[in-house]
Specification:
The complex is a heterodimer. By secondary structure, chain A is an alpha/beta fold. Chain A contains 32 helices and 29 strands. Chain B: InterPro entries: AHP1-5/YPD1, HPT_dom_sf, Sig_transdc_His_kin_Hpt_dom.
């Protein structure tokens, strides 16, 4: 009744757990009922609301269950955020100053602009300087030439003057008249190209006017009107004139203001004198009049002005056509168009008079050059100003260089800018990628965790379902109902198995799976695995065998559960895919395998090349994919073992084991071999249809093997079989011996026995021998039954066994050997009878090994004398032991409780014991009494410390006392102290040692309380309310410690 | 017909127990208690619970008296009583009673009279609720036993 409602309760209790402040307290107890279908449940079932939230959404779950798996995911997230932050901090200079990039470009452009401008300026300036230099030189050249031309003309006039003075005045009569003068001057005009004409005016004083007028037959006329001149002090009428200026004849030169001044100045200085420029009468060109004095007599050296005036005879004058002069001059020079020339008379500095040059023609006003002109007249000053006609053109090189420079620099700047922008972009992308990567990784972890959580949460209710189904199947059901329920259960189990695998996978991916390190016995683990598959292999008639090399230490430290899981997975696969032949699990040290492999390389090649022998030297005779387990290499392993057992390397602290699982199944298609270890990958989709399974197992195995610091690999040939092998590293554990009751204790009663194994197949024989060896039986292998029989009966003289010295206890025959040997039955029978008759020899018992046996074969075996037993394969040491015990009728030291279940043990511990329960609380008393009674104890109750003291007066018959601590009047500590005192007194009196185990009963078990318990002389404590396990622990401890109690603990 | 309601009764019992567990009135200690019951002591649970009710009744009465007293100051005694009550309640797995008793006890440790009065009320309420439920449970159990005991000749 209780069980049924209990299990119903369990699912509901998950709800109750919501209100339970401390769910962990009760979970372990109820969890016993959860482990129905699952192979391995490492974790306690968790609250069911978790499962719902797991479906509702990951985010929510995170918040709710932070203390659970998700905390890692959260951590991941936060750490990834930090990482991102760090990344941002670690960005480059460019990254940090990205905003400055466009500004930088603009600044650079402006800077380049300035530089370009500077360059322009510089080039422009230098060209200007050059231009100015050119101008200066041109101007000076022009001025010099003008001056030269002028002075040449003046010299000619000078020469003319000397001519006049010489021939007109010094000759008497005069050698010159108008005609001569005009002729001469006309003929020498080429020498004075700038003078339009020359004329000679004689100095006439008023006193001589009449005489002069009469002499020449004309009157002196004034220049402006042409009228006869009024009376003056002095006159200067023109007497000789060139033809070009013949109109000047008889005109008084002194009548013109300017001419008069000129004349006066000329006779005073004796030099050529110029007038200010004026328009010439004939050509309307600007011109000056040049006046030169002619003296009568030769002048003394350094003559005074008066002397000069007195000596003056006349004046020679000529109109100087400046404009023509300059025009001619410029015409002679190259590049005269390029510059504008102005000549000024600057005698009056404030009012310069233009002598040459068009005032409108300004030219380039920015640049000009002045050159002084000296025409020989000290009173007059002249200057020449030159300008360029056109403004300075911008030079072509400046025009090309500066924009080119600017362009190049700008481009360089732009390239740098775009490079910067590109770098920034790339770095941004990089950071983004990094962030995404972190997020992707986090998501991956989250996925795995989600998977782990969800599959875990599926598992919890699934266990409930399976449990309920199991219970349902226990009830009375109609066959249809049973069928339904069984189907449901099978489906549920499959689902659970799948979920477990997914959970494992997820756990591994989430990095949660940690291997434990506990000592375990590899051989017994392998036997366990074998026993799991024995049923199936027997049904399929395939041979399943395990062999562990002797070199492999008996006990290693590692994760036995995971090791087992890998082997179960691999063997399970093999069983699933094998229809005929064998599955052979072999464990040895990896170093051995290397040795084996060396010799093996040749062997396996031979195997393949060999012309298909009818039977292979493998376990079952079928061809295997990998030759490693064939006898040729195997015997190497076995013999090596026998020879070099002592060479066991003890230096390293761990061992590398190599496990290979060989089958003769369908093999793995070559195309699929590459993805065997990928999750959810099967050889092909048809595989899953034919054989079922998810294909996740191998990937988990791979992960597990890698966790064990090993490798996994396989060799497979389609239709021939596969051999999977993996290595795993375990810690050596020489000191630790297994005390756990789960370790299979092999019976030791066979030690020293001898047996003959008859098997034609050496590999199989070696396996048999291995198992026998574990039982302590010495084994000789014979290949044929006939030789065995003959050697036993001694009929054959050449006995390979020294039978006389050792007694033979049993003969173990492989079924195949027996079947194949015809007509042997009678001999066996004979042997049996013969040896039976022999008193000295104990009959060697006969046993038959068989993978499967038909009824007829069984009958034949019986008749042949294998009546003793048929040992069904797969072989396991414990099973052989059990069978042989049966055969040899050895007394079995059966273990009552091999599983060490505590209630039974507790019962054995407490049965018949008289126990005193001291508690003031009646209810507690009753419950404690009930519990103890249930375990077979006789219980006496006391409601207070005093009563207990009364009951415990020595001598008493109590075996133990359970004492409540919190009691009114006298508490548990006090009572115990008094009891101990009493015992002490009794010891002194009677010399008998009394020690009553006193166990405290307490509701709150904190450490301090426990210490106080021990201090007051108690032996231990039991937490209230009673829990079996707890109770058992304390009781076992204190009862063992009690020397008086004659309890025999069945655990030892 | 008599005897045919066994399954139904069992289901009722289970339902009742489930609801009690749900509400947190009982905890797994009660299951332990039930496991202690076997053929040698078929009424073990019933006995224990009855003792519990008797004892608790006394304690509650005494508590009420103590607290009703005008010039009362014996908080220590209240504490002792409550210890008893807590101990026995946890022994039978009466979880809610135990929890409210613990709260009550802490109030008494602080000499908090109003808190104590309130605690007492709550404890009494929980206690009566438990008692009712237990009565119902035992009644069902009895019926079930009756029904299970009936055998019809085939």
């Amino acid at each position: 009744m209780f069980q049924s409602f209990l299990s119903q309760l369990i699912t509901d209790m998950n709800w109750a757990a919501l209100n339970n402040p401390n769910p962990e307290e009760k979970e372990p107890k109820s969890s016993d009922f959860y482990h129905l279908g699952a192979i391995d449940l490492p974790e306690k079932p968790r609250k069911i609301d978790f499962w719902r939230s797991g479906l509702m959404g990951f985010a929510k779950m995170k918040q709710q269950q932070q203390q659970l798996q998700h905390s890692v995911a959260v951590k991941m997230n936060s750490s990834s955020n930090e990482q991102v932050g760090n990344n941002k901090k670690g960005s480059t200079f460019i990254q940090e100053h990205r905003a400055l990039l466009p500004k930088g470009l603009i600044l650079w452009t402006i800077f380049v602009g300035f530089i370009s401008r500077g360059i322009y300026q510089w080039m422009d300036d230098s060209s200007k300087v050059r231009r100015e230099e050119v101008l200066v030189s041109m101007c000076d050249q022009r001025a010099r030439m003008l001056q030269d031309q002028f002075s040449v003309s003046v010299n000619h006039v000078h020469a003319l003057a000397i001519l006049v003075s010489t021939f007109h005045y010094h000759k008497n009569p005069s050698a010159i008249d108008q005609g001569t003068f005009a002729d001469y001057t006309a003929r020498t005009a080429f020498e004075r190209p700038l003078l339009s004409g020359v004329a000679y005016a004689e100095k006439v004083v008023n006193a001589e006017r009449e005489m002069f007028e009469s002499q020449h037959n004309w009157v002196i006329k004034t220049m402006d009107t042409g009228e006869p001149s009024p009376v003056r002090d002095e006159y200067a009428p023109v007497i000789f004139s060139q033809d070009s200026v013949s109109y000047l004849e008889s005109l008084d030169m002194m009548s013109g203001e300017e001419d008069r001044e000129n004349i006066l100045r000329a006779r005073e200085t004796g030099k050529a004198v110029l007038t200010s420029p004026f328009r010439l009468l004939a050509s309307h060109h600007l011109g000056v009049v040049l006046t030169f004095p002619v003296y009568k007599a030769s002048l003394p050296k350094n003559p005074t002005v008066q002397e000069r005036i007195a000596a003056t005879a006349g004046y020679l004058g000529g109109a100087f056509d400046v404009e023509s002069l300059v025009e001619n001059l410029l015409g002679q020079l190259a590049g005269n168009q390029a510059i504008v020339v102005h000549v000024y008379d600057i005698t009056n500095a404030s009012d310069p008079l233009v002598m040459y040059g068009n005032q409108d023609e300004e030219g380039d006003t920015s640049l000009y050059h002045e050159s002084k002109l000296d025409f020989g007249d000290p009173f007059r000053k002249h200057k020449m100003i030159c300008r360029y006609l056109q403004k300075a053109p911008i030079p072509l090189n400046v025009l090309t260089t500066v924009p080119l420079f600017f362009g190049i620099c700008f481009l360089v700047g732009y390239i740098l800018y775009s490079a910067g922008v590109h770098i920034v972009k790339v770095e941004d992308d990089f950071h983004e990628m990094q962030e995404l990567k972190v997020r992707a990784e986090a998501a991956d972890v989250a996925k795995s965790q989600f998977l782990a959580t969800v599959s875990h949460e599926i598992r919890t209710p699934m266990n409930g379902i399976l449990g309920m189904l199991a219970m349902l199947l226990d009830t009375e059901l109609s066959s249809t109902q049973r069928d339904y329920a069984q189907t449901a259960q099978i489906c549920g189990k499959a689902l659970i198995a799948l979920i477990n695998e997914v959970l494992d996978r997820a756990k591994i991916e989430a990095g949660k799976l940690e291997l434990e390190s506990v000592p375990f016995d590899i051989r017994s683990i392998l036997d366990d695995v074998l026993s799991l598959f024995s049923e199936e292999s027997r049904n399929k008639r395939i041979e399943l065998a395990v062999f562990v090399s002797d070199k492999v230490p008996e006990i290693v430290k590692g994760d036995s559960g995971r090791f087992r899981q890998i082997i179960i997975n691999l063997v399970g696969n093999s069983v699933k895919f094998t229809e005929k032949g064998h599955i052979f699990v072999k464990v040895h040290l990896a170093e051995q395998a290397k040795d084996g492999a060396e010799s093996n390389g040749v062997v396996s090649e031979d195997m393949i090349v060999a012309s298909k022998p009818s039977s292979y030297n493998t376990l079952s005779g079928y061809e295997a994919a990998d030759g490693r387990n064939s006898w040729d290499s195997f015997k190497h392993l076995v013999s090596e073992e026998e020879l070099s057992l002592l060479e066991f390397d003890t230096s390293s602290s761990n061992v590398r084991l190599m496990v290979s699982i060989e089958d003769t199944g369908i093999g793995i298609p070559l195309a699929a071999q590459g993805r065997v270890f990928m999750p959810f990958m099967q050889a092909d989709s048809s595989t899953s249809r034919t054989y079922g399974g998810t294909g996740i197992g191998l990937s988990i195995s791979k992960c597990l093997v890698e966790l064990m610091r090993g490798q996994i690999s396989f060799v497979s040939r389609p239709r021939i079989g596969s051999t999977f092998w993996f290595t795993a590293v375990f810690d050596k554990c020489e000191k630790c011996s297994l005390k756990k009751p789960t370790v299979e204790n092999l019976p030791s009663s066979f030690r020293g026995m001898r047996a003959i194994v008859v098997d034609a197949k050496p590999v199989r024989a070696a396996v048999t021998r291995y198992h026998m060896k574990r039982l302590g039986i010495n084994v000789d292998v014979m290949t044929s039954l006939r030789t065995a029989v003959s050697s036993v009966t001694g009929r054959n003289g050449s006995s390979p066994l020294p039978l006389g010295t050792t007694k033979l206890d049993m003969i173990l025959v492989e079924k195949d050997s027996w079947i194949s040997t015809e007509d042997i039955d009678s001999e066996i029978r004979q042997m049996n009878s013969r040896t039976n008759g022999n008193v000295h020899h104990k009959t060697p018992k006969l046993a038959l090994f068989a993978t499967n046996i038909t009824n007829s074969e069984f009958d034949r075996a019986k008749s042949a004398g294998f009546a003793d037993t048929v040992i069904m394969k797969p072989l396991r040491a414990s099973m052989i032991g059990a069978c042989l015990q049966q055969v040899l009728e050895l007394r079995k030291t059966r273990q009552q409780h091999p599983e060490g279940s505590s209630p039974a043990t507790l019962k054995s511990l407490l049965t018949g014991k008289k126990i005193l329960v001291v508690d003031d609380n009646m209810v507690n008393r009753r419950v404690a009494a009930g519990a103890l009674k249930k375990f077979g104890a006789e219980v006496v109750c006391a409601e207070s410390g005093q009563v207990a003291l009364g009951l415990l007066q020595i001598p008493h018959s109590f075996d133990a006392c359970f004492m409540d601590i919190q009691m009114p009047q006298m508490d548990g500590f006090e009572a115990t102290r008094q009891i101990r005192m009493m015992e002490k007194e009794a010891k002194e009196k009677t010399k008998l040692e009394w020690h009553l185990p006193i166990l405290a009963m307490t509701a709150d078990v904190i450490h301090a309380t426990y210490e106080e318990c021990l201090k007051s002389g108690m032996d231990g404590y039991v937490s209230k309310p009673f829990e079996e396990e707890n109770l058992y622990k304390s009781v076992a401890k204190s009862f063992k410690a009690n020397p008086i109690s004659d309890l025999s603990c069945s655990q030892s | 017909m008599l005897g045919l309601g066994v399954d139904r009764l069992q289901a009722d019992i289970n339902r009742l127990l489930t609801s009690l567990f749900h509400q947190g009135v009982l905890d797994e200690q009660f299951l332990q208690l039930q496991q202690l019951q076997d053929d040698t002591s078929p009424t073990f649970v019933y006995d224990v619970i009855n003792i519990y009710f008797d004892e608790s009744e006394k304690l509650l009465r005494s508590l009420r008296l103590l607290l009703m007293d005008r010039e009362f100051s014996d908080y220590k005694k209240i504490g002792l009583h409550l210890n008893q009550l807590v101990g026995s309640s946890s022994s039978i797995g009466a979880r809610r009673v135990r929890n409210v008793c613990v709260a009550f006890r802490s109030a008494s440790e602080l000499n908090n009279r109003p808190g104590c009065l309130r605690g007492l009320e709550v404890v009494e309420h929980e206690y009566h609720y438990l008692k009712n439920m237990m009565h119902e449970l035992f009644q069902l159990e009895q019926q079930r036993l009756l029904a299970a005991g009936v055998r019809y000749p085939m």
